[in-house]
Amino acid sequence: MADDLPPTAWAVLGLLSFPGERTGYELKKWADASLRFFYWSPAISQIYAELRRLESLGYVTSLHSGAEEPRAKRTYAITEEGRGALAVWAGGGQGLGAPVLKHPVLLRVWLGHLAAPEHLRGLVTEHVARTKGELKEVRDALGRADGVEAWAHPQIALRWSERRLAAEVELAEAMLDDLDAVPGQPPGNSPTQG
Amino acid sequence: MADDLPPTAWAVLGLLSFPGERTGYELKKWADASLRFFYWSPAISQIYAELRRLESLGYVTSLHSGAEEPRAKRTYAITEEGRGALAVWAGGGQGLGAPVLKHPVLLRVWLGHLAAPEHLRGLVTEHVARTKGELKEVRDALGRADGVEAWAHPQIALRWSERRLAAEVELAEAMLDDLDAVPGQPPGNSPTQG
DNA sequence: CTCCACATGTAAAAGGTTACATGATTAG
DNA sequence: CTAATCATGTAACCTTTTACATGTGGAG
Question: Which residues, 6 or more positions from A80, have their beta carbon under 8 angstroms from its beta carbon?
């Protein structure tokens, strides 16, 4: 049992562990709509590559709708072996690494001594707006998953993501206050609310 | 002006934009102690590689303490050109991508239908403990940066990280409750507090 | 008729990690 | 004396992205 696949492979296999069969293209959309909020969405070309690898391991099977269907596509399904391997992987995982966060906005704030204060505020404000948009996306996804028994756990992950994004907004707003309190800086365009 | 360096290169250059000169080895420790909380710490071998690239671009200079010092080491300093390029990079950044989060624990929770409920609880509990440890590390780093005027912005990034980790603990605890509420599951080993 | 979504894949390049190799200094 | 820390680097390998190439079907 090849147990040392990269997390991405398990994520793709995981996508197929829920009821139904899907194409690589569909998998990418699923990943964009939910996986990405807590574990990033691979490029479509990588999804195809992972699917081929998983198939070569016997963890998935594919069916090519060749002559029958007008539009040719390859539909993937998880095998029993794949489900077993995935369960073994899911059952392990003690001593997991810490979550990795790559936050471009924080990277710039960290280097704030090199930028104009208003510019920094602008980046953070933009980030807040974007995050609120993502919050809406998560809520939509949550709405779609609601009530479906097989999706109890994805739903928990989504609920976590929802709270996480709400926290991200609060974090950014608190940072805005910290930014305003940096000494040696003109009062700037931010009204000292109160 | 080669403006299309990967964020990692800017992060390493950024490390050198604070007062003082340092070796690649020291840079790695700095990254482990602060950068990693909001933007991951590159492998030491990659730091050396980035330093060589930055030097070839004229963004940093190095001094090899050859025959003089007993222990040979190469000390890096940012150049004016490097500082300029970094400032340009820091001054841009509108339309930044969303932060990328890779959360191994969430990935397993998402696949919770394949694992034993107690196992899931164990992973999350372990994650809470680890996060609390990181919280302590951030507070230590914050203590070291405290009062140093040149570090106002790194301090803001650290403060953000502190709040973020505190939020992470709360998020995980809320998820534990969600996990207990999954239907079709034995009451388990978690006492229904109340 | 044109644009967008569907659908799949290849190839090159970049990014990044791990393992390996080496050696001095310091703390216990 | 021994282990850990300091210190640097190479090479192989894997992961992942980007750009490219191709073609169908439906909506406006």
Answer: none
Rg (Cα) of chain A, in Å, rounded? 22
Residues contacting residue B127 through CB under 8 Å, at least 6 positions apart: A96, B105, B172
Partner-chain contact A109 B156, CB within 8 Å: yes
Closest Cα in chain B, distance from residue A97 (Å):
7
Tell me how far apart the terminal alpha carbons of chain B are, to the nearest angstrom.
Answer: 63
Q: Helices B7-15 and B44-56 meet at what angle, rounded to 10?
A: 90
Between CA A67 and CA B185 the distance in angstroms is 46
For the segment A132-152, the average pLDDT, to the nearest whole number, is 91
Closest CA-bearing residue to C1' of D19: A45
**List of chain A residues whose C-beta atoms are within 8 Å of the C-beta of residue B169:** none
* A39 close contact with B: CB closer than 8 A: yes
B190 pLDDT exceeds 50?
no
Domain chopping of chain B, boundaries: 7-91, 104-177
Spatial separation of the C-alpha atoms in residues A74 and B4, rounded to whole Å? 37
Residue A8: CB less than 7 A from any atom in strand C: no
List bases, strand C, within 7 Å of protein CB: 6-11, 14-19, 23-25
Is B93's CB within 8 Å of A100's CB?
Answer: no
Q: What is the pLDDT of residues A144-160, one digit of tens each?
A: 888 888 899 999 999 99
Among B51, B52, B31, B33, which residue's Cα sits nearest to residue B42? B31
Residue B25 contacts A where some CB pair is shorter than 8 Å: no
Report whether CATH 1.10.10.10 matches the domain A7-91: yes
User: Tokens 């197929």 — which residue?
Assistant: A16
